[in-house]
Amino acid sequence: MTEPTTAEKEKKKQVPAGLSGRRAIPPNVSNAEEDEVPTMELTGLMPRGVNLKDFLDVQEVYVFNRENEINKQEHHTEKYFNSKLIVRRGQPFHIRIDFNRPYNPQEHQFWIEYVIGRYPQQNKGTYIQIPLVRELESGKWGAKVTQNENNSVSLTILSAPNCIVGKFRMYVAVLTPYGILRTRRNPDTDTYIIFNPWCAEDAVFLDDEQERQEYVLNDLGRIFYGDPYSVRSRSWNYGQFEEGVLDACLYLMDRAKLDLSGRGNPVKISRVGSAVINSQDDQGVLVGSWSNVYDYGVPPSTWTGSVDILLDYYSSKESVRYGQCWVFAGVFNTFLRCIGIPARVITNYSSAHDNDANLQLDVFLDEESKVDNKLTKDSIWNYHCWNEAWMARPDLPVGFGGWQAVDSTPQENSDGMYRCGPASVQAIKHGHVCFQFDSPFIFAEVNSDVVYSKVLTNGKKEVKYIDKTHIGKLILTKALGTDEKMDVTETYKFQEGTEEERLALDTALMYGVKKKDTQDVLPSAEVDMDFQVEESTVGSDFKVNITFRNNTQNRYTVKSYLSGNIVFYTGVSKTEFKNHSFDVTLEPAKSQTAEVLIKASEYMSRLLEQASLHFFVTARVNETQKILAKQKSAALKIPQVLLKVPGEKVVRKEMTVVVEFTNPLNRELKDVLVRLDGPGVLRPTSRKFGNLSKNSTLTWEEKCIPKRAGLRKLIASLNCDAIRHVYGELDIDIQSAA
C-alpha cells in the first residue's frame, strides 16, 4: 500500500447521470462499471514525518485461483477456462496475505472488503466488510485466521448464501492511528461469486449429486425435436465453462439493467434472463425468425452450441441472427448453468400456441368436412422447447419450489416485455395458475383441447368433435448421465381422463383460466378412425395408412378426405401439397385400411428446413352424419454428417477431425456450409463448400489440440437451401498426456 498520487488527490468526481434530486445515487445496474476506492481514508491531519511503512502494510495477496488449487477444486469451478478465482456462495474459500511484518492480533487490525459495481453500499450488499471472527457462522460473511506464521496470514472466508452473484473486487484494509490504509485495485484478486447448488442454505440447493453433475456441471446437452411419433434429438454444446462465457453471462444482467442488489435472487435473475435472451424488446441476445428467410445471419439449424452466440453478442453488443425455440432454450440453459443455477431443456410435443390461453384451439371444417385454412388461425407447434430452473420459491406457498418453467422464446407479452416464467411446474400440474409468473400460459400449452367445428352455410359453427389428448402429448428432457430421453409429462399434467386431471382443470378454471363454453361432443361409438404415417427419408415416397373400425353390426359408408401440408415446425401451414378424397365401405364388426401414396415429387420442391409435414384426415359417416377427425405431424428423416478421428487422441497433442457428407438427393445442393464444434477439444469453426452435386461427397479435415481429457463429443451441422437440420456427432475418449 502506498500514498495516493497527486493526480489521484486532484481527480474530480463527475456527477453521475441519473441524479435529479429524487434519489441519492443512480441505479447500480452494471457489474462491469466501477468507482475508485480510496487507498487512504484519514480521520484527521497526519503529522509530518509519519512513515506509513511503519504500520502493518500488505505486500501480496494470494487467492489460490488455479484450477488445480484448493478453492476451485472444492467449489467445483475448476472446469472454467478463467484465470480469476471463482467460488460458490455459502461455502468457505481460502486466501493468504503477506504483510511487511508479523501480524499481532493485539496490536494490529485489518479486514477484507468486497465491492461490486459503482456506488457501493453496505445495506445493498454491494459493499461487504468481512470481519475477523473466532469461528465462522453459517449464513454470514466472516473470515477466520487459520495460520499466522512469520509475515503471512492464512484466512478462511465464508460468504453469505444469499449474497449477490457477480464479479467482486477485493481489497485489504488496515486500521492505523491516522485512518484506514487500503490496498490498490488489483485485478488478480478479482473474485467471481456464483450460485451454489451444494449449499443447503442457497436458494438453488439441489440435494442429489447425480442431478448436480447433470444440471450444473454437464457442458453438453441433448435437445429433442421432431414429433411425438418420431422423436429426434441433437447434441448441444452449452459451453458454460469456455473462456469468456462467464463474463458474457454477467453482461446479460447488465444489459437487462437488473439492479445489483437483486442479483442474489434466482427468481429475479431467471425472469430477467428469459427476456434478455431474445431481442424482441430489449435488443437482447438472439433475433428470432420463423420465416425460412435468414438474410444477414445464420440459420437456426446451423448452430451447434451457445458459445459463439454469447461471445458474439458480448463483443459486438448487437443481437445475433437467428434463433428458434431450441436455440433460445440452449443459450438460456448455458446462462443458468454458468452462474450456478441448475437447469435443463424441456421439449413439449404438440404444443398449443398462438391462442389467448383459453384452453382451446379451433379447427374449422367446410360443408365437405375439409379443413378451412382461412378460418383456422390457431396453430399447434410440432414441438416447443423451454427451460426449467431449480430454485426455492419463498414468494409462493410451501410446496411450489423445485423446477420452474422459464421460456425465452418471444411469444406473449408479460408485464410489458416478451418473457415467460418462472412458473412452478408443481403449480401448473395441480392447476394453481394464480401464482406468478405466467402459469396460465404454460398450463394452456400442455392442456388445451382441439375443437373441430363445422361451418354451416348460414355462418353458424357447429362443434363436431373435441380432441382432449392431442396437446401436450409428450414432454421430454435429457436423462441423467446419458443421451437417452426422460419422459417428464406427468410432472406437468395428470394422466388424461383421470379424476386428478379433471380436478386440476377445475382448479385452473377457478383461478381464472379462460375456457370457452363448448358442449362436450362424444366421439362416435359406431366407427373409430386413426392413421399412421410411414417413416421415410427426405426424397423418398411413403404411405399414409388410414384405418377405420366398425364397432357395430351395421354396414356403413364413409366419405373421407386427406390434406397434406408443408408446415413450419410451429404448425403454421406454408402450402397444401396433397389433397385426396376417397370412399370407404365398412362391413359389420370389421376394420378397413386405406392407403394414400405420398410421392417425393409432390413435396420436395416446397419442403421447409425441418422437413415437417402435417396431415389432416377428416371423414363423415354418411348414415349417421358423424364427423371423425385426426391430425398428425411427420418429420422426414434427414441424412447425417459423418465424423471420424483417425490416430491418437491425447491432451495437448495435435489430432485430426475428418468431416464427410454425401449428397443423397436427386439434385445439386447449393451454398453448403458446414459447422464443427467440440467443447474441450476445439473452438466452434465453419467452412463454406459452395455447391455439391448429387451423389458426390465433401470432405473436410480440421486440425486441433484437445485441452481436456476424458469423454468428449464432436458435433457437426450442415446447412444449405435444400435441406437443413443435418447433423452428425462422435463420442471420443481423450487420453491424458503421459
The number of distinct β-strands equals 40
State the share of residues found in helices, binned by percent. 10-25%
Distance between the termini: 44 Å
- Give me the secondary-structure category: mainly beta
Rounded to an integer in angstroms, the radius of gyration calculated over CA atoms is 31 Å
Mean pLDDT level? 91
Low-confidence stretches: 8-19
Biggest beta sheet attributes: 7 strands, mixed
Give the DSSP E fraction (strand runs of 2 or more residues).
Answer: 35-45%
CA-based shape: elongated
Number of helices: 12
What features would you describe in this structure?
The chain is built from 12 helices and 40 strands. The model is unreliable at about 10-20 (pLDDT under 50). The protein is elongated and about 110 Å long.
Topology readout:
Layout: H1 6-10, E1 40-42, E2 58-62, H2 70-74, E3 85-88, E4 92-99, E5 109-115, E6 127-130, E7 142-149, E8 152-158, E9 166-176, E10 179-182, E11 191-194, H3 209-217, E12 220-227, E13 230-237, H4 245-255, H5 266-276, E14 286-288, H6 307-316, E15 320-323, H7 325-338, E16 343-353, E17 360-365, E18 379-391, E19 402-407, E20 413-414, E21 417-418, E22 420-424, H8 425-430, H9 439-447, E23 449-455, E24 461-467, E25 474-478, E26 485-487, H10 489-492, H11 499-510, E27 527-533, E28 542-550, E29 556-567, E30 573-586, E31 591-598, H12 600-603, E32 612-621, E33 627-635, E34 642-644, E35 655-662, E36 669-678, E37 682-692, E38 697-704, E39 710-719, E40 726-734
Parallel strand pairs: 3-11, 14-15, 17-23
Antiparallel strand pairs: 1-10, 2-4, 4-8, 5-6, 5-9, 7-8, 9-10, 9-11, 12-13, 16-18, 16-25, 18-19, 19-22, 20-21, 23-24, 25-26, 27-28, 28-31, 29-30, 29-32, 32-33, 34-35, 35-38, 36-37, 36-39, 39-40
Helix pairs in contact: 4-6
